[in-house]
Structure formats: C-alpha cells, structure tokens
C-alpha cells in the first residue's frame, strides 16, 4: 500500500510524516529527493543543462537562484522543468518502494495532484491548516516575509481543492490533536490491507 501525504506549505506534512516513520511507515520525501536528484542524477543534470544552459550549475552545485529566476512567471519554462523532474522522481520512488519490506509506505509531496504523483499512489492523505497559521509557521521556520510565503502558496491548490480529491484529511490547526488522527488513518489503512491485500486507487 502506497500512501501519499500532501498539504499546503506549512500545513505540517513533514510533521505528520515523521510520526508515520515513528510508527513504522517508511517515508519517501519527494521534495527533498528532487533537490538531491538535481545534483546527483547525471541524466537529470544533462537534461537541465540542455534545457536551461550551462549556467544553471555552478560546478557541481545547482544554481538554485538562477533556475528559480528562469522559471518564475514563465509557464513554458516551469513546464519544461516539471517534465524533467516529475518522471525522474517517480522512477526513484518506484525503485525505493520496491526495496521496502513494510506493508505500507508513504510519499510526502507538496504538489501531489499538481505533479500527477498521486497516480502512483493508492490512498492520499491531505493535511489542512488555516492559511494564517501556515503563513506564521513558514515565516518563522524559513525566515521569509509574509509576501514571499503568499507568493509560494499561490502556486499550490487550496486546502478545499486538495481535500476534495484526497481519501483522508488531517487537521493540523494547533487545536486538534494530531496523533489520534494519524493513528485512526493508520488503523483504517491496516484494515484495508488486511481485507484487500492492496487497494489500488484508480484516478
Ligand atoms: P513545507 O511544505 O513548507 O515543507 P510542511 O507542510 O512540511 O511544510 P512542516 O515543516 O511539517 O510543514 O511544518 C511547518 C512548521 O510548523 C515547522 O516548523 C513545524 O515544526 C511547525 N508545526 C507543524 N505542525 C505543528 C504542530 N502541530 N505544532 C507545532 N508546530 C507545528
């Protein structure tokens, strides 16, 4: 069973995933993998250079600022970057999940539905939190400004859009305890595994 964990910026996806790891669910952090892949995957590196030019790397290191400037506000460039990154990360996830022996694994991704990553997963969990709280968490965590946080959030689906497409929702609003919600979903997933062996989400 492959579970996807998504949610808006600062919703608490990573916090939920750390808890999943603590209860024995291995987690693949797609956003971290993409960052690593840009530097460690020779094929991805060659594709990025071909599409964006040599200056996208400073020696071995990706010039993140330059890449971000090239794709910002340029839909065609962003689509080209996604067309390189998404298939490569899907391949990595498939290889990683094939190596796991746990009955259930998870993938964390901010842009789950936007990237199409949900198609590789059986059930999707989305983490919801009020926008003001998410802005506060992100500005405190990353030291960025409110307008920078809003600009990054504008690229993502809304909580309502994600919730409409997800199988399970977790509320992480600093008032509702998280752990019981995670354990309840985990129990439901265990039951699905026990009943069906595996349930493939056809979407
Ligand atoms: P991003 O997409 O930006 O990486 P995320 O959805 O993975 O964000 P987290 O990194 O888990 O979110 O959480 C954002 C910040 O808020 C972190 O500093 C985290 O420690 C804090 N946080 C999240 N949930 C809670 C909570 N229930 N109680 C206290 N702090 C929390």
Can you tell me about this structure?
The chain has 203 residues and is of the alpha/beta class. The protein has two domains: 127 residues, Rossmann fold, CATH 3.40.50; 66 residues, P-loop containing nucleotide triphosphate hydrolases (Rossmann fold), CATH 3.40.50. It has ten helices and seven strands. The two termini are 15 Å apart. The mean pLDDT is 92. The protein binds adenosine-5'-triphosphate. The site of adenosine-5'-triphosphate (ATP) has 15 residues, from helix 1 and helix 7.
- Total of DSSP H or I helical runs spanning 4+ residues: 10
Query: In the residues, how many domains can be counted?
Result: 2
- What structural class do you assign from the helix and strand content? alpha/beta
- Along the chain, the helix and strand elements come as EHEHHEEHHEHEHHHEH
CATH topology of the largest domain: Rossmann fold
The percentage helix is 55-70%
Bound molecules: adenosine-5'-triphosphate
Based on CA atoms alone, the radius of gyration comes out at 18 Å
CATH superfamily of the largest domain: P-loop containing nucleotide triphosphate hydrolases
| Biggest pleated-sheet summary | 5 strands, parallel
- The general outline is globular
Tally the beta strands: 7
* Average pLDDT: 92
Name given to the CATH architecture of the largest domain: 3-Layer(aba) Sandwich
Distance between the termini: 15 Å
Q: How are strands sequenced across the largest beta sheet?
A: 2-5-1-6-7
For this structure, what is the CATH class of the largest domain? Alpha Beta
